[in-house]
Amino acid sequence: MTQTDRSAPPATPGSQPPALSLRETLRAAEIDTRLLGMLVALAVIWIAFHVMSGGTFLTPRNMWTLTVQFASVAIMATGMVLVIVSRNIDLSVGSMLAVVGMAMALVQAEILPDYLGFDHPATWIIALVAGILLGAALGAFQGAIVAYVGVPAFIVTLGGLLVWRGVAWWMASGRTIAPMDSNFQLLGGGSRGTIGGTWSWVVGVVLCVGIVALLVNSRRQRKRFGFRLRPMWAEVTLGVIGCVAALGSIGFLNRYYLPEGLARQYAEDNQIPWPEGGLNVSAGLAVPVLIALGIAMLMTFLTTRRRYGRYVYAIGGNPEAAELAGINSKRTIIKTFALMGGLVGLAAAVQIARLNAAVSGLGQLTELYVIAAAVIGGTSLAGGIGSIPGAVLGALLMQSLQSGMVLMNVDAPMQNIVVGIVLVIAVTLDTVYRRRSR
Amino acid sequence: MADETSTVRPPLVELRDMHVAFGGVKAVDGVTVDLFPGEVVALVGGNGAGKTTLIKSLSGAHPADAGQILIEGQPVTIHTPRDAKSLGVETIYQTLALADNVDAPSNVFLGRELTTRWGNLDSSAMEDATRKLMARLNPKFENFIVPVQSLSGGQRQSVAIARAVHFNARVLIMDEPTAALGPAETEQVRELIRQLQREGLGIFLISHDIHDVFDLADRISVMLQGKLVGTVNKDDVTVDEVLAMIILGKRPGEVTIEDIAELH
Question: Do A307 and B124 touch (CB under 8 A)?
């Protein structure tokens, strides 16, 4: 942030706002220019891939698949932001994903059927909750070693990376556990794990209402204390952009239709006669995408509006100051690792549901993608800086690169090379940006 | 001033026979000091004399090994910064102890955030309170929503002071409050100390600057190698006598002409 005064004394009611430059306009609208930069970068990448792939990238089908694929990394990246902001790191998320995934698979495929029978309606929820709790427990355990014993998080979680991978193999002697409970499979967003076109529109409208409510509430708060208000045009523009983006994305994704087999099934279920040219049934948002969306909002709320989030940032900014301010840093660190673990549990559920199986090799190298998503999203490894929306965008950017390259038949080694280069460029740009805006 | 009040009521703060050791080193060795409301007591001494360590036992940053802390005559236990704050003891550290990556209101309320009915952070209320506070402490302060790392030294100092005085402190500990400031900012902090003193706060002032000490303090407690050399009323001593206490560890009556010559 620059030193320029962003918080002038309260404006007198009814006074005309002076003309603003572009920079001031963005500032007046309180828009994060960094995030805006990422959106631009994302748009450039999308358009470039679209052109280079001969118009196959920006299609509802491809984008729909992309959202499903990015969900699990996005879920974990939101937790990784807090871990990194608190000056720690978690290298164990990939291996932990395997352990938790294996545990959830065993619970629903081998343990619960003995008591409840197959496909009992409670099976999926028991397995899911068990997985999230196990993830949180593993995370809390590692966090406790970091916070109370003082072993660097890098070492503790590097150990975790090796240990949990081994444990995941040992849990089923390397067997593949399958199939998953039929309700549980919906978490993966497979053929049936979508909410359909109508409900997707409902989600879009809810998002829209939410955006407007946030704007109105923030304006009311500022009015209450007589702070300078955003110009009305900025409020309206923000609201309109937000709503158009939300509804536009839903409208676009809703143009991905169910494949013919499923559409026929749908027609049969709803007693619609099968029309001549086939039936276009919108698949709608996939369940994992909804989960990622919900988690992103929840985590944003946690970091910006709750004490816990404030403390994580304070610890990252100056651990000594946080301690002297009476913050219980140790407990905050453990909570952060536990939260990370719980999110790993959720991501593991999405992955095994999608695969319809659990294998001990699940989540290999995932830790690197999760960390990369957070870092591309502007999280500083020095701690104290990072944002949830940034990390989600980071995850989307990485998934876009990968799926774009797959579309263009780039071979796997080359994909890694590109992702690696993009990571370094993104962080370089970020470093330069921060230095200049200091 | 201390003498008249002490017969009427107990001191605001009394540190009795304090001991703090780091390994075999006695950083604070049997020190007793006290502080009355509306009084500034300067703690002076060379590097490593134990001033900061003594004061950390009162602020809760590093509890003492032995000794007694009394606040308004009541024995209290202070193990953490939170304990000290709940007793009305606020500290401004030499390093300021600010979280550089968050804004001024967040720093002022760090650890004591204002929340709404549902326990959410009430950022607007915190910003409002900080604005009102700054209008009193430093009217030129305007950067309320930028990370404090982009503020000047004096502005950062204002944030640290605002944090200390907002929560109705009775006792203020200031560790080298003017060490990192320019002349104008130093004068501003001095004026603020006088103002807080008039408001009835007791202030422990740690300073290397003998001018600060003579300008602001009512009494001066001198430490040397972890021990208290003595406490004197400012009006009864000269700068040379205080320097003799700091450097030679000799109380005013014990200083010889040779000692004074050696100092110059």
Answer: no
3-class secondary structure per residue, B161-196: HHHHHHCCCCEEEEECCCCCCCHHHHHHHHHHHHHH
pLDDT tens, A195-210?
Answer: 999 999 999 999 999 9
For the segment(s) B2-88+169-263, the CATH number from 1.10.760.10, 3.40.640.10, 3.40.50.300, 2.40.160.40 is 3.40.50.300
Contacts of B127 in chain A (CB under 8 A): 225, 227
- Cis ω for the linkage preceding A179 (within 30 of 0): yes
One of 1.10.443, 1.10.3470, 3.10.100, 1.10.10 is the CATH number of A32-44+55-193+286-437, namely 1.10.3470
Residues of A with Cβ-Cβ distance to B80 under 8 angstroms = 326
> Three-state SS across A248-313?
HHHHHHCCCECCHHHHHHHHHHCCCCCCCCCCCCECCCEHHHHHHHHHHHHHHHHHHHCHHHHHHH
Q: Give the residue from B135, B6, B75, B123 showing the smallest Cα distance to A221.
A: B123
Angle at A111 between CA A110 and CA A114, to 5 degrees: 95
Contact B101 A306 (CB under 8 A): no
Chain A residue closest in CA terms to B59: A324
Query: What is this model's ipTM?
Result: 0.88
All residues of chain B having their beta carbon less than 8 Å from the beta carbon of residue A385 are 101
Ordered per-residue pLDDT tens for chain B, 264 residues? 444 444 567 899 999 999 999 988 899 999 999 999 999 999 999 888 899 999 999 999 999 999 999 999 999 999 999 999 999 999 999 888 999 999 999 999 999 999 999 999 999 999 999 999 998 888 888 889 889 998 988 889 889 989 998 888 999 999 988 887 888 888 888 888 998 899 899 999 998 888 889 999 999 999 999 999 999 999 999 888 898 898 888 888 777 777 777 766
Residues of chain B with CATH 3.40.50.300: 2-88+169-263
Domain ranges of chain A: 32-44+55-193+286-437, 194-285
Q: What is the DSSP string of B94-149?
A: TTTT--TTSBHHHHHTTTS--B-TTS-B-HHHHHHHHHHHHHHH-TT----SSBGG
